[in-house]
Amino acid sequence: MARREPSLFVRLFALMSLVLVFGAAVLMTAAWYSARQAADEAYDRLLLGAAYQIADAIQVQEGQPEIALPVSAFELLALSDRDRIFYRVLDPAGRTMTGYESLADPAAGAAAPGKALVENATFDGEVVRVARVSRRFDDPQMRGEAVVVVAQTVEARQALARDLTFRSFILVGVMGAIAIGGTIFAVRRALAPISRLEAAIRQRDPLDLTLVSVSTPRELAPFVAEINGFIERLRGRVELMQQFIADAAHQLRTPLAALEGQVDLLSNDDVTPEGRKHLDRIRVRTGQLSRLANQLLSHAMVAHRERAVARSPVDLTELTRRALDEAIPDTLERDILVTLHAPPDPLIVSGDPVNLAEAIKNIVDNALRHGAPARITVRLSRRGDRAVVEVEDDGPGIPVAQWARVVQRFGAPSSDGKGSGLGLSITAEVAAAHGGALSFVEKGAFGFVVVLSLTIQGREFV
Amino acid sequence: MSRFIARLIPAGALAVSVGYALLLALSVGAHAQTMTRFPSVGTPSDTLSIHAATDLYALAPLIQDFQKLAPGTTVEILEYVTNDLFSAAARACHERRPLGDVLLSSSVDQLVKLANDGCAQRVDGPNLPRAPRWANWRDEVFGFTFEPIVMVYNRDSVPAADVPRTHLELAELLRREADRYRGRVGTYDVRLSGIGYLLAFNDARQTTTTYGRLLESLGRAQVVVRCCTSEILDEVAAGRLLIGYNMLGSYAYERVRRGQPIGIIMPADYTLVLSRGAMVPAHSPNPALAARFVDYLLSERGQSVGRSQSFFFGLDGAAPPGIEGPDVVTSGIARPIAVGPTLLAVQDAARRKRFLEDWSQSMIQTAP
């Protein structure tokens, strides 16, 4: 037995989810990184702006550098309102004019001292962002570069980065949820043709050998083609086999007819009583054999027509009348009263007229053959959406215990050798193919009744 | 250790504080710190040490009410003038030794400077979010009062026509009636008083021209400078001084309530509003108790006690009756001095040095 594989839906969903989770992780990392960058850029501008303002406030008075720290620089820095601020202003000689002596100039001894820069550092045990700008003085009394170093703790930028990251995470989360929902929807939609195909195949009648005609996407076409190929081969086989049975039965009939003729000729000659007894037996067996051949032929025909012939509206009353004509041979030895009760309106069913006629003939033939000493009554009626053919006879009927078997092929060959065991099974098959059923009513006050009910408007016949 | 100290002390701060210490020793020896003890109501369990630059009379009702909530707490109050408190706290912080559990100072710029230098610790409490945004920095420095900065005058000696309504009117009055007011106007000595410096600095920022004229007029009028609001109020009440400039509204109003002949004016051009600051120093021995006290100051109960008995103005700006001038909050003339890093510019050593030089030049040296 093949190992049970996880369903396509589970596979697709799991793979898509994996891709989504991976994508979300990448996006979130990128969001976190860019949020930090954005926060740093925003606050670095403030830091540099403040440093420039302070540098601008340096003045030379009587050859001495003077600094009056502008409040606006601190107002700028106070925009990150929880952060500590450290600063230091150095005159061109490198002396600290004001601020925190221990705040190092990050560009001290650098190759390009004139450049403004912002970088990370630590001060007083705290992580800070340090901005450094310089201002060149070419005053006759004072030459060189004054340097302003401003440092600020990083609470505000971390808070901003956290905030930005959090918002991005929410967006990524919402996108992820939408993507997962979309994936479920898309996968279900994409796999729908498989379910349709499955339903179409599951609902087929086992005897239905027509081709599968469900429209499928390209990917499923090979399977459908393969199934149809298989059905065609099977149908070919079945047809071949039935053809063989039909041919065989047909081929048998001619020698059987000759045989019957020869037996009839023999009976008129002088034969010993002992011989006559054997001769009668041969006659009965020959008749039996020829009937069997006829019914095999009939069965093959019915089976063939079931598959091959399209259904058409059939007037059941007219059909039954003709079937009775054909079923009751002129050469019957005994007098039997056959009556047909039909409703005034035509009773139209959708079906194959030949098969239906065959089915009714088989019932009547069965009644004639097994009893029915004097009377066969056929009643047609309409019950709801069903057309019902009841064949009642005054014979002994079929015991209840055998009802189930007589509708099977060779299920109940009659013990007296008169039946082949095929007649009622053919009728039952035709009934089933027309959405109907074959049933029996036990012999009561009137007689034994065989009931053939047919769907007038089955869903296939609309 | 010594490297650490050197690292943290801003350039010039040492020199300046040495200079102040000298001045202090010379002129305000009477204001050396004093300690007052409020014994616990119940069985003593712990001691809260408050180092304050706030008048005791204003603090006492708050302390007593707090002790009802914490009956086992003994409270010690050490009184300072603002600059002394600052230098003592800075020194203690740099040496990493404790100086009290709570610092209270009207000179919030000094508290902000301490917090910026890592000398404060973060305070948590259920009532702290009640502080307005401008009165809270880093959850370390809290403003817990709303104190308009007013002008006062002696009701008996200053004619109604002379009472100035704005800063400019004061400058013009001193110029016009120079003889009458010479030597009879008092204000803070900004060299000694941190709050005086903070107020003068903010005056200078509000209107440079008016401030210049006022400074000149005050100098001509041979202004009397003192360390503290209370000294000037005493002299105004006694009639030795006629006008006091840049006084803390709460202290002045307390005099009015006591029936002293003092009139209070909220200047109609702009009224500075100061929020007295509270801070828990980094090396506080009792940080939890300290936080509880700071939280109490900002609680509904603490604010209500403060409004009715100590500072008379609520943090919402509601003014008590009997004050001349428009309602500062609704008329939009209030200029709250925000507790925040902007005050670091005020505390910059170079800037301060220069400001004090200018001030001294105008105020002291123009005097004969």
From TrEMBL, chain A:
Transmembrane segments: 12-33, 169-187
Positions of the HAMP domain: 188-239
CDD domains: HATPase, HisKA
Keywords: Kinase, Membrane, Phosphoprotein, Transferase, Transmembrane, Transmembrane helix, Two-component regulatory system
Any one Gene Ontology molecular-function term assigned to this protein's record: phosphorelay sensor kinase activity
Protein location: Membrane
Reaction(s) catalysed by this chain's protein: ATP + protein L-histidine = ADP + protein N-phospho-L-histidine
Histidine kinase domain mapped to chain residues: 247-458
GO CC aspect terms: plasma membrane
Keyword Isomerase: no
Isomerase recorded as keyword: no
InterPro entries recorded: 2CSK_N (IPR013727), HAMP_dom (IPR003660), HATPase_C_sf (IPR036890), HATPase_dom (IPR003594), His_kinase_dom (IPR005467), HisK_dim/P_dom (IPR003661), HisK_dim/P_sf (IPR036097), Sig_transdc_His_kin-like_C (IPR004358)
Class of enzymatic activity (EC top level): transferase
UniProt-listed SUPFAM superfamilies: ATPase domain of HSP90 chaperone/DNA topoisomerase II/histidine kinase, Homodimeric domain of signal transducing histidine kinase
Origin superkingdom: Bacteria
EC number(s) per entry: 2.7.13.3
PANTHER family membership: SENSOR HISTIDINE KINASE YKOH, SENSOR PROTEIN QSEC
Name of protein: histidine kinase
Organism, as annotated: Ancylobacter aquaticus
UniProtKB/TrEMBL annotation, chain B:
Alphabetical UniProt keywords: Signal
Keyword Phosphoprotein attributed: no
Pfam families: SBP_bac_11
Presence of the UniProt keyword Oxidoreductase in the record: no
GO CC terms of this entry: outer membrane-bounded periplasmic space
Designated name of the protein: Iron(III) transport system substrate-binding protein
Organism: Ancylobacter aquaticus
